[in-house]
Design goal:
The complex is a heterodimer of chains A (78) and B (340). By secondary structure, chain A is mostly beta strands. Chain A has a domain at 15-67. Chain A is built from no helices and six strands. In chain A, strands 1-2-5 form a three-stranded antiparallel sheet, with no helix packed on it. In chain A, a hairpin with a 6-residue loop joins strand 1 (20-21) and strand 2 (28-31). Chain A is globular and about 50 Å long. The mean pLDDT of chain A is 85. By secondary structure, chain B is mainly α. Chain B has helices at 16-25, 35-38, 45-56, 73-93, 100-107, 117-124, 127-141, 146-149, 157-170, 180-190, 206-220, 225-253, 257-288, 293-319; one strand at residues 109-111. Chain B starts with 15 loop residues before the first helix and ends in a 21-residue tail after the last helix. Chain B has two domains: 16-93, no CATH class; 100-319, Heme Oxygenase, Chain A. Classes of the chains: A mainly beta (78), B mainly alpha (340). The interface between A and B is medium-sized, with 25 and 26 residues. Strand 6 of chain A pairs parallel with strand 1 of chain B, so a sheet runs across the interface.
Chain lengths: 78, 340
């Protein structure tokens, strides 16, 4: 959705850019609150101070991380 | 007279040490010599209850006990002896990983066929098991995240900011109705349990007391701040998958919406918290105080050691068809009679 006419262009806004933390294995971390638009057009919201977004697509609480990315092992280490 | 009026009632004694502390709190007796602590079984009911009584004076106290007993020198001297006995045993008995990275890596994998108490509750737990689990855990969850708040003045910079942010989340993000202790009280209400603070102290087994005592021990001693951070990391890292299993147990048994919500909330919240604790609290602390790495590792592994003992105690009782509680948690669900 385009900015309303009253909004200044993005690059002139006073607040700093949104910072993401990415990991090879694990969720994408972003400061909350966030709104996430899903493929079906619905929007979900998290007010947490930090939000972990699933990147492995295995989460049962998608788009939020539920630690399903963790390696599964047959014999737990002692 | 500055007696606490609204705290929980005092529990029953479980042996000479706890009996003496109780008598002292009631203003009726002498404290045992500190040498008495040295001979008591470190994980036993008597020592763990005596220690729990000492610590609880720092949280909400007990009805009728003067509030200034919190800083009573005689009681603090005895507490130090009890702590020494407990901590020495923890250090001797905990299988500690060779490095912090190894300890963390062991927590960050999920067994395909888990044998822990949350696996058992998910697959086989009935409502009376879930009620017992909640009664045992209520000693912590009704003061959830309180023992960890003690560490805040002992951290600086990045570690402090991240720890405070996680604690803010635990305390409901500024909303009283979302404080995790409140959410747990709602879970207990769904299960037909009494939500009063300290109500199930008499019912809780020594293994449950030991887990909570470890938190207070690590939290109240600045010297153990590394262990507190390690303990907190272990809780947060293991919570998300464990909470999912417990949420499934609540759903399968029809425990109720609030009971499901408590664990569903922890699946999501703790998936974030573990990231923050690892990348910011631990990393921030060790950047400033790298010599604490071994203490962080000890805190992680001591938590596993005591949680394993607690889980084994519950499963041993339940597999034999017995109650895990020392005193019944009452109706409504039909449960076997409690045993000591």
């Amino acid at each position: 959705m385009p900015n309303a006419p009253a909004d200044p262009p993005c690059h002139t806004r006073a607040h700093p850019p949104c910072r993401l933390r990415v990991q090879r294995r694990g969720p994408l971390l972003v400061d909350g609150p966030v709104e996430v638009e899903l493929e079906d057009g619905t929007t979900v919201r998290s007010d947490r101070f930090r939000v972990a977004l699933c990147t492995c697509r295995r989460s049962r609480r998608y788009p939020w991380c539920d630690t399903s990315h963790r390696e599964r092992v047959r014999n737990p280490p002692p | 007279m500055n007696d606490d009026r609204r705290g929980p009632g005092l529990p029953a004694a479980r042996g000479p040490l706890s009996a003496a502390v109780l008598a002292y709190l009631c203003d009726g007796g002498a404290l045992p010599p500190v040498e008495a602590a040295a001979g008591a079984p470190p994980y036993g009911d008597d020592l763990q209850l005596a220690l729990y009584l000492c610590y609880e004076l720092h949280y909400r106290g007990f009805a009728g006990v003067p509030a200034d007993r919190e800083w009573d020198p005689g009681l603090l001297r005895l507490r130090a002896a009890l702590e020494q006995r407990f901590l020495t045993a923890l250090r001797a008995d905990t299988p500690v990983h060779g490095s912090l990275d190894d300890a963390l890596a062991a927590l960050l994998v999920e067994p395909v066929h888990g044998t822990g108490v949350s696996h058992w509750l998910r697959d086989e737990g009935e409502l009376w098991h879930l009620r017992e689990y909640a009664a045992q855990r209520s000693l912590y969850h009704l003061k959830e995240a309180d023992p960890h708040a003690w560490v805040l003045p002992r951290l600086w910079g990045r570690a402090k900011a991240a720890m405070a942010a996680v604690e803010f989340d635990e305390f409901g993000g500024g909303r009283g109705d979302r404080v995790h202790a409140r959410l747990f009280a709602d879970l207990m209400a769904d299960l037909g349990l009494d939500t009063s603070y300290g109500r199930y102290l008499d019912a809780a087994c020594a293994e449950a007391l030991a887990v909570v005592n470890m938190m207070s021990l690590f939290g109240l001693h600045r010297a153990l701040r590394g262990a507190l951070v390690g303990h907190f990391a272990a809780v947060e890292i293991t919570s998300s998958p464990g909470s999912r299993r417990l949420a499934e147990a609540m759903r399968r048994t029809g425990a109720g919406a609030a009971a499901e919500f408590f664990y569903d909330e922890h699946v999501e919240a703790d998936a974030v918290h573990e990231q923050v604790v690892r990348h910011e609290v631990i990393a921030g602390l060790l950047q400033q105080e790298p010599h604490l790495a071994a203490d962080v590792t000890f805190g992680i592994d001591a938590t596993g050691h005591l949680e394993d003992r607690f889980g084994e105690r519950l499963l041993r009782a339940w597999r034999a068809g017995r109650s895990s509680l020392r005193a019944p948690c009452g109706p409504p669900a039909a449960a076997p009679a409690a045993v000591s």
